[in-house]
């Protein structure tokens, strides 16, 4: 499950045209943490997801694998 979330997080980063560094800066984490999220080695917290949602991240898709209506 974590690996699926990491994959979807990477898909969203690429959809938004962000580098790992840019996304980690927006989310308030280090680049290594961003890499761990995308690899499925750790799980992003609510504060990280909330910060990125303000930049267009589809949090529902990342967590549940279902696109929110705004992002279809």
From TrEMBL:
MF (Gene Ontology): DNA binding
UniProt cross-references to CDD domains, sorted A to Z: HTH_XRE
SUPFAM superfamilies xref list: lambda repressor-like DNA-binding domains (SSF47413)
Domain HTH cro/C1-type: from-to ranges: 9-62
SMART domains: HTH_XRE (SM00530)
Protein's recorded name: Regulator
Organism per entry: Escherichia coli
